[in-house]
Amino acid sequence: MPSILILGFLGTFCAFVGAIGGIGGATLLVPVLLLCNVEPRLAAPLGMLAVAAGSLAAASRQLNDGVVHHRLGLSVELFASIGTVCGALLSASISEQWLARILGTAALAGAIAAIVRKGLRNQPVGIFDDEPAGEWPGTLGGTYVLNDAVVPYHAQHVGYGLGISVFTGVVSGLAGVGGGFLKTPTMSEVMKVPVKVAAATSTFVSGITASTALLIYGIQGRIEVRPAAAVVAGALLGGFIGARLQSGLQASTVRKVTGSLLLVVAVIVIGGSW
Amino acid sequence: MSSATPNSGEERFPRPIHGPNRFFALSVWLKRAVVLVGLLAVVTLLLPPPAAEKLGLILVVLLIAIPLGRVIWFVQRWTRRGDLRFAAVGIAVLVVVGVGALLA
């Protein structure tokens, strides 16, 4: 096990990039911990602790900025959870090598979609200028602030998006990862939700996923207290800084950061499968 | 009523009905939770093993409970405001989490 100081630093870094790109962070932290010779049964809970703490640290800021769409997040999470249960049941019948390739290909597709896309899909609409940003009651739409202008949006292709969420859940269940890195591109590229909203909503949803996973890891006795505390302390700092930075970044920059992170994840995962 | 002109895109969207700081209470609650979890994490690192084990357990329980508490907060809010469809989605998510824990 790495020293407490190194664990704290890793927790900070992974929660920081997780909060900016809405990819959770466990997908980055767990491979690094495995490289540091941490047992997989202990690395996975530490990854989820980083996700939970990063999500918590980012929550207040993202809530005040009106960029979290809770209705969309919970809808996606519900369908993804159903997929996760199916994936967990299927996990015994698929090889780890093929699993890694499926995971890597999904990340690569999300990365290409995020990097290739140019321009803004949603444009400011004047009548909303006096309204605070946020989600609209009873709908999967809302507004967010972009360059001091209020931009309305509405989730599109909801059926496809929720169907793909089941698939992302299956992949998460098969691989034992949170799946934030799949949920963000699903919301932004399939459901056409602004990437800042997608990333913040994914960060919120990742907290619920981590909560479920930690409950299970705790019951299985897989959480070591001191390494856990170090990762949590670091991740709180990283999540806080990441959320502050994300709120000030241009949407195109967030999209590029998310795409680049997904590309790194895809290379790590696919590279490890050969 | 909106005075949207044709092709302005304005007519595609409903008029928002919320006011400012509508999540103020939740935001304050989450800020306090961050401070509490942060303090617990630091104190857990500083204390000797027996006490650290107990505090660490509280830390993990808090990290599990806070996101679920946030979902419960929204479920009760949406239920009170008649947004029953999404309240049901929130309850369903909580049920799935519970089933996952039971299966473990």
TrEMBL record, chain A:
Residues spanning the membrane: 6-35, 42-60, 72-91, 98-116, 160-182, 194-219
UniProt-listed Pfam families: TauE
Membrane topology: Multi-pass membrane protein
Main location: membrane
GO cellular component: membrane
Keyword Transmembrane: yes
Sorted UniProt keywords: Membrane, Transmembrane, Transmembrane helix
Compartment(s) where it occurs, according to its Swiss-Prot or TrEMBL record: Membrane
Keyword Metal-binding: no
PANTHER family: MEMBRANE TRANSPORTER PROTEIN MJ0441-RELATED (PTHR43701), MEMBRANE TRANSPORTER PROTEIN YJNA-RELATED (PTHR43701:SF2)
Name of the protein this chain belongs to: Unannotated protein
UniProtKB/TrEMBL annotation, chain B:
Membrane-spanning intervals of the chain: 29-49, 55-74, 86-103
Keyword presence, Membrane: yes
Keywords: Membrane, Transmembrane, Transmembrane helix
Protein's name in the database: Unannotated protein
Species in which this protein is naturally found: freshwater metagenome
